[in-house]
Design brief:
Blueprint lengths: L8 H15 L10 H8 L3 H9 L21 H9 L5 H10 L6 H10 L28 E12 L5 E11 L5 E6 L4 H15 L4 E4 L6 E4 L5 E3 L1 H10 L2 E4 L5 H18 L8 H16 L10 H12 L7 H7 L2 E3 L5 E4 L2 E4 L8 E7 L2 E5 L6 E6 L48 H7 L1
Parallel strand pairs: 1-4, 4-7
Antiparallel strand pairs: 1-2, 2-3, 5-6, 8-11, 9-10, 11-12, 12-13
């Protein structure tokens, strides 16, 4: 047999098998002697064992690459947020920063793009209808837009309630103001507008939709019939209101977009203790947005609002009529409580009127007389459903007392409570001396 030499591993083993078959006709590659094969081929036994497991085929060794990422240890947080439908990389990065994430936003974006399967299926998006007109524009500080947004709140007891989000935005520069309330009553609308005017100034016109707390109906000529309390509020503060066409974002689109932005950017994964805590968080969020560069404005909204809009918008002057809007009126129940934001607070018995005025200042509830001259009582803000009593809520001295009309003949006796004796009572020598 002519021996041929080759550097190919498969050919070297094949030639070795031919030599071993010539010596032993019952040769089988399954029962090959690795020691003899190693002597013929010059390969190590460890390598021959690996080749035998692969059927004496030279299969390349695949080494698993260890991927070390800056997101290691934080992927569970991202997976949890993706499973809840949160795909905004800015929101995810903010949450990771709270847990000590040192990486960049690009890594978060790549992770979100490669794990889209964790996101629940979105709703069907309607095809856009295209532009229908020119956007409504105004000068600096001439008009603000306001609206309500609603979100679901899951409390600690498992019940689901609605929370109202009051939003106001400057039509010219996009300066934002957001505040949360337990409901969207008219009194909360006035409180939110006064707080927004204190922060942004009073414009000439407010753009809003057809709220029940703003307009009742339109007359035969199409002019709005204002709600009487809202009309009085407009005269007190000094602004006018312009109603916008329903479902027409070209006139009031900034505030509609702001409502959706609050739901998509601020609310996802948000937890809070009470509405005071939530409003403090959203005020910090608004200040950060107002101090950031905006591409459409080519400037910072806060700077533009202070230099241009505040020239036209007037600062809110604190007056006594505004205090009545900040302190809504409440009736006192027969048991001496008033209901405010779904909770009951006690009123002192010395107040003989039927109504009081209430306001919430951060973490304190203040109850005043109807004319706001005297402070009756203060309560700590509590978000439990239990009633909050106050000192002197009930006049116990003036309670009627029944006295006997006939001589009292029945008698009963009162003795000290019996105590159970212990084993050490026999060593109580003082008691023995008293008994003698």
């Amino acid at each position: 047999m002519t021996e041929t030499k080759s550097n190919d591993l498969c050919e070297i083993i094949a030639q070795a098998f031919e030599q071993m078959k010539e010596r032993d006709r019952d040769f089988s590659s399954k029962n090959v002697n690795l020691a003899e094969l190693s002597r013929i081929t010059g390969l190590s036994r460890q390598r021959l064992r690996r080749l035998k497991r692969n059927g004496f085929r030279d299969v390349p060794i695949t080494r698993k690459r260890v991927n070390t990422s800056v997101l290691e240890g934080y992927t569970s947080i991202l997976d949890n947020m993706l499973s809840k439908g949160v795909t905004n990389s800015t929101v995810c990065l903010r949450r990771l920063r709270e847990h000590g994430y040192p990486g960049s936003q690009s890594s978060v974006k790549r992770y979100i793009a490669s794990h889209k399967y964790l996101v629940p299926a979105p709703r069907q998006i309607v095809a856009p209808q295209g532009s229908r007109g020119i956007r409504y524009q105004t000068g600096p500080g001439e008009s603000y837009q306001m609206d309500w947004g609603f979100v679901k709140v899951l409390n600690y007891s498992g019940a689901v309630t609605d929370a109202a989000c009051f939003v106001m935005v400057c039509h010219h520069c996009g300066q934002k103001y957001v505040e949360f309330f337990p409901n969207a009553r008219q009194e909360n609308l006035f409180i939110g507008m006064i707080h927004a005017f204190s922060y942004m100034g009073v414009p000439k016109t407010i753009l809003t939709d057809n709220m029940k707390s703003v307009v009742l109906r339109r007359d035969l000529e199409g002019h709005p019939v204002w709600q009487k309390d809202y009309e009085s509020f407009m005269r007190t503060v000094g602004f006018s209101t312009r109603l916008c066409k329903p479902r027409h974002p070209f006139t009031k689109g900034k505030v509609e977009r702001l409502v959706r932005f609050v739901k998509d950017n601020f609310m996802p994964g948000r937890t809070f203790w009470n509405y005071t805590d939530l409003n403090e968080a959203v005020s910090v969020w608004c200040r950060d947005l107002n101090s950031c560069y905006q591409k459409y404005l080519d400037d910072i909204p806060e700077r533009v609002h202070l230099t241009r809009c505040m020239v036209t918008a007037l600062p809110l002057v604190e007056s006594e009529p505004l205090l009545f809007y900040l302190c809504p009126e409440r009736k006192i129940s027969f048991d001496g409580f008033i209901n405010y934001e779904g909770r009951r607070f006690g009123v002192p018995f010395r107040h003989t009127g039927r109504t009081v005025r209430v306001c919430r200042d951060c973490n304190v509830i203040r109850i005043y007389t109807p004319d706001l001259k005297d402070l009756l009582v203060t309560h700590d803000v509590t978000w439990s459903r239990r009633d909050r009593f106050c000192i002197d809520q009930f006049d116990e001295k003036s309670q009627p007392e029944e006295l006997p009309t006939a001589p009292v003949r029945a008698e009963i006796s009162m003795v000290p409570k019996e105590t159970i004796g212990l084993g050490f009572d026999k060593f109580d020598f003082e008691r023995e001396e008293n008994d003698e």
